[in-house]
Amino acid sequence: MFGAVVVGIGIAGSMRIRDLLNPLQSSPSESLKLIGFVSRRKLDQFNNAKQIELDEALKSKDIDAAFICTDNQNHEESVRHFLEVGKHVLVEYPMALSAEAAYDLWRLAEQKGKVLHVEHIELLTEQYKQLKKEVQGKKLVEGVLHFTGGHLDENLSGFPSFSGIARLSWLVDLFGDLIVTSATREEQKELNYSKLTAHFLTAENRPLTWVEERAPGMKRDKHIHFSFTTGILDTLPSSSRASVGLFMQDQNLFAKKLLGQVTREELLAEKQRILKCIDLAEEIKKKCEH
Ligand SMILES: NC(=O)C1=CN([C@@H]2O[C@H](COP(=O)(O)OP(=O)(O)OC[C@H]3O[C@@H](n4cnc5c(N)ncnc54)[C@H](O)[C@@H]3O)[C@@H](O)[C@H]2O)C=CC1
Ligand SMILES: C=CC1=C(C)/C(=C/c2[nH]c(/C=C3N=C(/C=C4\NC(=O)C(C)=C4C=C)C(C)=C\3CCC(=O)O)c(CCC(=O)O)c2C)NC1=O
């Protein structure tokens, strides 16, 4: 059994507590046991889970793993604290808000011999799995991925190429290695309007564009326009809900890693994908700031 603590009780943290208390039957998640949660608010009890102080969680011999579900801005610090005291860590994406911090945290995890797992539920949705099937084997001519969503506080969420890393993760998982050719950022501060546009080239020199647009009240949505040599794909597959919740799927993956049931090759491929996306996010940020 691995004792677990959840840090940060917002949308993601609440779902983590729910899933830790109700693991999927006969799945690796049954090897995780919720010991308590850490929150800055005084909550005492949450779904029968017990609130504990951060210091206590870091010291506790009953806790083997921490689920970091705080705002992006806090990820680096929390991940570092728990790795330093020899705990395994699951962190919600993005793992950090700079490439330097991300590489540093992986090094620390390896030094300590602990699992560092970054949640990427955007790759686990039925819609994405279907999209991946539709794209597989096709040759890209050019493509656009346009995301819209509500306003995010950048002090908490970080630069949009990091808070929007799930879109980068789609593009890299679909089309392989990318290089950033240019990136711009448009902002109307008084309206909390923000639009990031990044241009890439694939390894086959095909152009890809990512737009991340946010404003108060803007609907959370994604649009694609992918031209292939065989035709155009401009609607995302409609998809049913996964029979196993996304956070539960992710928790199973983490538990499998703790149990040593994931091969070195798989671990390495995942780490490389995550760092590749973080590198792109960093590169986009730099280009926008120039
Ligand atoms: N909501 C979702 O569907 C998904 C969220 N995520 C990621 O999960 C993380 C959290 O997102 P949400 O739950 O949506 O945000 P949220 O704003 O609902 O929750 C964040 C919580 O962390 C708490 N917090 C911040 N700093 C803290 C600290 N130092 N100690 C203890 N608690 C602290 C905040 O008070 C808040 O309750 C983000 O990194 C986000 O990118 C990832 C995938 C999906
Ligand atoms: C209803 C308000 C709502 C909020 C505040 C919300 C927040 C939210 N959803 C996210 C991703 C995500 N959120 C979901 C799914 C959900 N997330 C949910 O909170 C719910 C209810 C679902 C279920 C449909 C998925 C699948 C992702 C991964 C990125 C994606 O594919 O869009 C993220 C991570 C950053 C990002 O990728 O943009 C945040 C902060 N999502 C919401 O839907």
From TrEMBL:
Pathway(s) of this molecule: Porphyrin-containing compound metabolism; protoheme degradation
Q: Which organism is it from?
A: Xenopus tropicalis (Western clawed frog)
User: What job does this protein perform?
Assistant: Reduces the gamma-methene bridge of the open tetrapyrrole, biliverdin IXalpha, to bilirubin with the concomitant oxidation of a NADH or NADPH cofactor. Does not reduce bilirubin IXbeta. Uses the reactants NADH or NADPH depending on the pH; NADH is used at the acidic pH range (6-6.9) and NADPH at the alkaline range (8.5-8.7). NADPH, however, is the probable reactant in biological systems.
Q: Where is this protein localized, as stated in its record?
A: Cytoplasm, Cytosol
> Per UniProt, where does NADP(+) bind?
S39, R40, R41, Y93
Q: What class of enzyme is it?
A: oxidoreductase
User: Per the record, what are the reactions this protein catalyses?
Assistant: (4Z,15Z)-bilirubin IXalpha + NAD(+) = biliverdin IXalpha + NADH + H(+); (4Z,15Z)-bilirubin IXalpha + NADP(+) = biliverdin IXalpha + NADPH + H(+)
Which gene underlies this protein?
blvra
Give residue ranges for domain Gfo/Idh/MocA-like oxidoreductase N-terminal.
3-120
**Does the keyword Calcium feature in the UniProt annotation?**
no
Q: Which GO terms describe its biological process?
A: heme catabolic process
The cofactor binding remark recorded in the entry reads: Binds 1 zinc ion per subunit.
Q: Which cofactor does it need?
A: Zn(2+)
UniProt GO MF annotations: biliverdin reductase [NAD(P)H] activity; nucleotide binding; zinc ion binding
- Family, per entry: Belongs to the Gfo/Idh/MocA family. Biliverdin reductase subfamily.
> Biliverdin reductase catalytic domain: which residues?
128-239
Q: What is this protein called?
A: Biliverdin reductase A
The major lineage groups are: Eukaryota, Metazoa, Chordata, Craniata, Vertebrata
Main localisation: cytoplasm
Binding residue positions for Zn(2+): C277, C288
Q: Please give the Gene3D superfamilies that the UniProt record associates with this protein.
A: Dihydrodipicolinate Reductase, domain 2 (3.30.360.10), NAD(P)-binding Rossmann-like Domain (3.40.50.720)
Spell out the subunit comment: Monomer.
The GO cellular component terms are:
cytosol
One of the Pfam families matching this protein, by short name? Biliv-reduc_cat
